[in-house]
Amino acid sequence: MHKSLISIHDFSKEEILHILEVAREMEATGSSKLLDGKVVACLFFEPSTRTRLSFETAANRLGARVIGFSDVANTSISKGETLKDTIKMVSNYVDIIVMRHPLEGAARYASEVCDIPVVNAGDGANQHPSQTLLDLYTILQTQGRLEDVTINMVGDLKYGRTVHSLLQAMSHFNPRFFFTAPDELRLPAEYKAFMDARGIPYKESRSLQEHLCDCDILYMTRVQQERFSDPMEYEKVKDVYRLERSMLQGVRDNMKILHPLPRVGEIAADVDDTPYAYYYKQAQNGMYVRMAIIAYLLGYK
Amino acid sequence: MSEKHTQLKVSAIKDGTVLDHIPAQSIFQVIDILDLSHSENPVTIGVNLESRSLGRKGIIKISDRFFADEELNRIALAAPDATVNIIKDYEVVQKKKIDLPETVVGIAKCSNPMCVTNHQPVPTRFSTVVDHKKVKLLCHYCEKTTEEFIPLGH
Ligand SMILES: [Zn+2]
Fold first, then answer.
1. Does B138 touch chain A (CB under 8 A)?
2. Which one, of A207, A278, A277, lies nearest residue A248 by Cα?
3. Residue B112: inside a domain
4. A73 — phi, psi (to 5°)?
5. Inside any domain, residue B115
């Protein structure tokens, strides 16, 4: 039976640690011919240049070839072909499918209608598990451990799926959290209940300054306009936090700033040259983690 | 008013199934779940009957029809405390309790407008969660929780 990666919950703690170990190997090795002769489909039913380039580069660096599309205009999908038919057809051509789709649950459904592994590269506001794994890899790389790390999550904690997935994945590793958000974007009650049930300590704050100096990871997020149904609500909160170099005095030496990118105004450009900025390296790590995911699901690692 | 009185308000059936203790507001959901609007058998429905435990209850009697347990268990989505009486020759020959099924396939609608099941021909699939005595449905696809049972096609 083939295995897919649809949701971060599909991987056990052991599998997560295995992927991170393979990603470390990938980073050390660089390119290889591991998947020589294999074909990877990258099906982007909604455009996401950043994620697509990362997956396509990952496949290329493993020696695989890539087919696919980067949005659905001018394809048979825009003429009304069902998702099932598209997936069935493509799965007969390739060894693994990487897909992004605006509908939630689309990747799970795709994995059920074909006989090859499917990697979810984002299904609407639901899951984006390779992002979570690259966040974990980056935390491990910067802190030398995943256990007992203090993470300050900042920004859109209400709609931000990366935040929700990361806190659930970190629950394996005895974390502590600060949740910094304006009232309108606080962490939903279901995630607080999730942490209460596991005895994970956390504290909420409205002030970015309050917990800058007592965290190991500062996880900044963008406030995404498309998640808001009410434009007034978005206008109120879009510029609520802006991290600047001058605010970083007194932070822990090991503190690193992560951001899933793209950023809008939440991290000033003068932060980029500080030893705490790590978001560009984090994006590069995405490629190694995606190499590891593809190789693992195809049974090579 | 006693149970006996309420019984008298809905005519007795000779053979079949009587579903009792259905909350009044859930009666049409139960009709949908069992697809009784397309039933060939005579169906008698009583709504807004007085009940000591529920305030207002509904009752459904289906003549000459006996359901599989898995069909009956689906009623738990709308009426978790419903009781089932099997009638043979005007006598109650068996009383059944219904059990909430762990998974629900193809009869409920996901409340998330962005869920793939609301846009593609995908049979819905949920696991059931009981929260504060209320049945909620966790979508297998979009991973969101549907708070109220909504029959497919609504
Ligand atoms: Zn759903």
1. no
2. A277
3. yes
4. -60, 140
5. yes
* Residue of A225 and A21 predicted with greater confidence: A21
Place of tokens 């809008």: A264
Q: Which CATH superfamily is domain A130-283 in?
A: Aspartate/ornithine carbamoyltransferase (3.40.50.1370)
Contacts of A273 (CB under 8 A, 6+ apart): none
- A64, A39 Cβ separation under 8 angstroms: yes
Contact between chains at B114 and A7 (C-beta distance less than 8 A): no
CATH of A31-127, one of 2.60.40.4070, 1.10.260.40, 3.90.550.50, 3.40.50.1370: 3.40.50.1370
Residue among B116, B140, B144 minimizing CB distance to A106: B116
**Interface contact A82-B121, CB threshold 8 A:** yes
Out of A84, A103, A126, name the one closest to residue B143 (CB). A126
pTM here? 0.88
Q: Is there a single domain that holds both residue B84 and residue B117?
A: no
pLDDT, tens only, B89-126 = 999 999 998 999 999 998 899 999 999 999 999 999 99
As a three-state string, the secondary structure of chain A is CCCCECCHHHCCHHHHHHHHHHHHHHHHHCCCCCCCCCEEEEEECCCCHHHHHHHHHHHHHCCCEEEEECCCCCCHHHHCCCHHHHHHHHHCCCCEEEEEECCECHHHHHHHHCCCCEEEEEECCCCCHHHHHHHHHHHHHHHCCCCCCEEEEECCCCCCHHHHHHHHHHHHHCCEEEEECCHHHCCCHHHHHHHHHHCCCEEEECCCCCCCCCCCEEEECCCCHHHCCCHHHHHHHCCCCCECHHHHCCCCCCCEEECCCCCCCCECHHHCCCCCECHHHHHHHHHHHHHHHHHHHCCCC
Give one word for A165, left, alpha or beta, with left for phi > 0 and alpha for psi -120 to 50.
alpha
